[in-house]
Amino acid sequence: MDLNAILTPIVEFFSTDLGQVIGRFLTAVYEFLYPANSEAPHEVVIPE
User: Fold this and answer.
1) What is the pLDDT of residue 24?
2) How far apart are CA 12 and CA 19, in angstroms?
3) What pLDDT score does 27 carry?
4) How crowded is the C-beta side of 31, counted as CA atoms within 13 Å?
5) SS3 for 41?
6) Amino acid 43: pLDDT
7) Could you tell me which residues come within 8 angstroms of residue 23 by beta carbon, excluding any fewer than 6 positions away?
8) pLDDT tens digits along 1-48
9) Which residue from 1, 6, 40, 42 has the highest number of Cβ atoms inside 10 Å of its Cβ?
10) Euclidean distance between CA atoms 19 and 4, whole angstroms
11) Residue among 7, 28, 25, 6 at smallest CA distance from 17
12) What is the DSSP string of 11-45?
């Protein structure tokens, strides 16, 4: 399996103007859904 043959077209696409716009949009969506400064998870007490 040639990994270079798979990754080269993807890298070339994201280096074009349209690819950069799509890449920035996907990055913004990812950062919105998974913020870096979110609170740490905490235990939820379930009453018995």
Assistant:
1) 94
2) 8
3) 94
4) 6
5) coil
6) 87
7) 14
8) 789 999 999 899 989 999 999 999 999 999 998 887 767 778 888 888
9) 6
10) 19
11) 25
12) HHHHTSHHHHHHHHHHHHHHHHHS-TTPPPP---P
